[in-house]
Amino acid sequence: EAYNNCSYVWSKDDFELGTPLGKGKFGRVYIAREKKTKFLVAMKILFKSELVKGRVEKQVLRELEIQSRLKHPNILRLFNWFYDDRKIYIALELASEGELYRHLKASPHGRFNERRAAKYTYQVADALHYCHLNNVIHRDLKPENLLLTGDDNIKLADFGWSAHTLSNKRKTMCGTLDYLPPEMVESKSYDDTVDQWCLGVLCYEFLVGSPPFESEDSEKTYAKIRRIEVHYPRYVTQGARDLISKLLKPNGLRISLREVMVHPWIKENKKKQLDETFTAV
Ligand SMILES: COCCOc1ccc2cc1OCC(=O)N(C)CCCNCc1c[nH]c3ncnc(c13)N2
Is the Cα dihedral 54, 59, 61, 63 positive or negative? Predict the structure, then answer.
């Protein structure tokens, strides 16, 4: 495809910008089309001035370096980036269904059925496992950072907080606390199993529609996280509770991502998903 042909370097003039897809902390994302090949991409445009003001230029460059090396079906491909005097342009794979968060909120009762929740949990576990094999911790897993493709597959995006496992940089607080694991709440050292904790929170939120430790104030949220106090609504099945409870454990006791991918609840729902697909045909 277009992006594999590196014989020419893309520049801004090779693209036509289309409708905006959303606004992030430091930039806007648009649909864009490469003029010669009509190839559609997501184009994230960052203002250099804003990066300098936010003192995040190093973090953004690290993120670009990390994401451009990762090639996995459930990780948003970063094709290329280029800049002019004022802006940085990042050409990315387009996820036509946008933020998973919107689909979660739009689902009946604001939550996914077990098959969908298990399918997405599997795909995120697979993407995280690949990241860990490449010495990358995502560290900022939440529905807002997950995108959905037109054929209903997850794409992990926005590696703003990802880090090489070698450098245990302290994560400055920003955004939701709901996903923080105990060892980060107590600002102890942490390793890539923080992503397992976040996967447990994510799976719970897929099934219930809100994260397990959500409270009216951050002190209560911290306390619930430290105590790992999780309440399951009646409709959450035993299989789902078993998986989530094996992820929401103190670090060192969490099951591995490979174990998540072969967990009975995941397997039984992938099978149901397959049966449904073939009966539908
Ligand atoms: C330094 O930045 C590195 C890359 O960060 C991103 C790459 C691509 C993104 C979003 C990224 O960061 C988060 C962000 O900007 N928002 C939350 C606002 C827009 C939300 N996306 C909307 C969206 C819809 N279909 C998409 N297909 C591909 N990428 C998308 C989107 N967004």
Answer: negative
Q: Look at ligand 1, atom 23, and give the residue with the nearest C-alpha.
A: 98
ipTM of the complex: 0.97
Q: How far is the CA of 120 from the centre of ligand 1 (A)?
A: 18
How far CA 242 is from CA of 110, 214, 232, 249, 266, in Å, comes to 22, 20, 11, 12, 11
Which pLDDT score is estimated for 171? 46
Catalytic residue positions, numbered: 140
Identity of the amino acid at 97: E
For ligand 1, atom 10: residue with the closest CA = 158
pTM: 0.89
86 C-alpha to ligand 1 centroid (Å):
20
Question: Percent of the chain, pLDDT > 90?
Answer: 63
> Hey, how many other C-beta atoms are within 10 angstroms of the C-beta on 203?
27
The alpha carbon of 29 and the centre of ligand 1 are apart by a number of angstroms equal to: 6
